[in-house]
Task: structure prediction
Amino acid sequence: MFAATVPDAVTFAVCAVVVLSGAIGVIASRNAVHAALSLVMTLFGVAVLFIEQHAYFLAAVQVIVYAGAIVVLFLFVIMFLGVDRREDIDAEPLKGQRPLALVLVAVSLVGVLTLAATSNWVTGAHRVVGSLSSGHHTDTYLLGKSIFTTYLWAFEITAALLVIAVVGAVVLARRPSRVHDTVVEPGDAGPVGPGTPDAGVPERAEVSR
Amino acid sequence: MTRGATPTVHAQLAQLAHLAQLDALTTHGDPLFSHGVGLFVWVVVLIKVLVAFIVLLTSVMLMIWFERKLISDMQSRIGPNRAGPWGLLQTLADGTKLFFKEDLLPARADRFVFKLAPYLSLVPALLIFTVVPVGGFVTIAGHRFELQVADPTIGILVVLAMSSIAVYGVMLAGWSSGSKYPLLGSVRASAQMISYEAALGITIVTVVIVTGSLSTRAIVESQSAAFWDWNIIRLGIVPFVLFLTAITAELTRPPFDLTEAEQELVGGFHTEYSSIRFALFFLAEFMNVITMSAVVVTLFLGGPDGPVPHLPTFDVWFPSVWFVAKVFCFLFLYVWLRAALPRLRYDQLMTLGWKYLIPLSLGWLLAVAGFMVDGWWGAGVVAGALVVTGLLIRAFAIGKARGEHQPLLAPVGARAVHAVHAVHAVPPGSAVGEGDGEAD
Result:
């Protein structure tokens, strides 16, 4: 599996450059949309590296879920909140934040690398389902089997967590139907929820940016 | 006792045989690569890519001509008839014209993203077609290969991945234009595409669980036994209808073309585009129509499956004829829909996607999964789904009855009525009040 052929090495090198330049782009771009696009680039590079490791299903999921859904949501938020302008990031609200960040990054990097070199930090095993290239089952089969048998509990808990998050988001985002019980009169120009002067106007102002 | 046991044993054996068959399906790929990668393999792959590219571009050209001509017939007009016989070269003429037009870059545009967006639209459209099986197997010089550019084990997921990347093209085009109507168009488009992608994905899962493989070739082969093994019949007609609706919305074709509603948004997300970049968007749009029709044919109509006459040398290529014929039916359908149906309102679009398509596709998926296990499981799932549906309908009715007394946001028509009331309420002759009323 580690006997790298020339195409393997070239693919890896190209992907490494793509992933790293994307990662640098995420933190170096001043425009939030450009940063999000750099993130897509990184995710794509990682997807190709997954294919390189014969993890085809993971590669597809990486593109569908991360590049296709999550970053699109990022972009939605960026566009609607209007933070897509260049911002002055020289101002430092927290004193001594940068050296502290550097130390923390160094510590976590060493930790992650140590864990990656010794064992899987979740399961304590190097690999969970065995080599992908040796058996005659596809990676999708192996992944599905281990998710729905050995790791079913973790899988179901994660699903429940996501459902709770969605319900929580809906509850938080829901406009309170009526704070004080007043009857809407025919001449009342505001058929919108109370508390907001007119829900139509700020929305329009945001969109037109 | 024994009489009761025998059918179960038979059922178990049948199930085992089915599983073995699934196993066989999951482990194959293009036989071209089974003997290593030599020069011949390289050449074949290169030819496949080139042929697919050229055929796709040509068919886009013909599709644009076909759509204009057919919709003219449906509207009692003549349509393009000057360039070439029957106006066949009209698209070529238009393309050439666009190519030589001035390439405008809006002053407020984000230059890099503005230039990038058309390619983000076009490339996914091209890549989706690579996983579609367009024919059977061909043997040339001792090498047997599939008539399909690529047959990855994750086949159908590539379609999903690429269609989720295509959202970027539309979204970024609208945003980077730095202008109002494109942004509105692109927000509509991306919200619509994301909403319908869920139903699209769930219906694909329905197909995948009866096939037992993600490979498009395996999906096609599992339908090839007989006509009634096509997924459109095997799964019941509902997933097919759901999928067709969802991809029509994904393609932003009429009646779901709110993203470029001319009456409201000028041209939608590509309003600010001109010259070759506009042509790229146009190309991507029509290419997506063709590739998505091909995906429907692959998933539900057996792809290149069909009766093959015993003719020497021709019978190998006959499945491709079936494939093209089936795709053509869908292309016709899309033009027909455009001519026949009015555009949906935005709230209708979202209601259809979230309240009908997603629950229905999810329920159907569960029912199919139940029947895959056992008839009783299937019946149980269907019964449970019906009960849940009944409860939900009741809950919605209660919620609606409660909501009518406390309107959160009245419909647009009702708001206009209120505005009229407001105008009438101000003393006559007050110009300010009338101006406000009109602005609302």
Observations:
- Chain A has seven helices and no strands.
- Residues 184-209 of chain A have pLDDT under 50 and may be disordered.
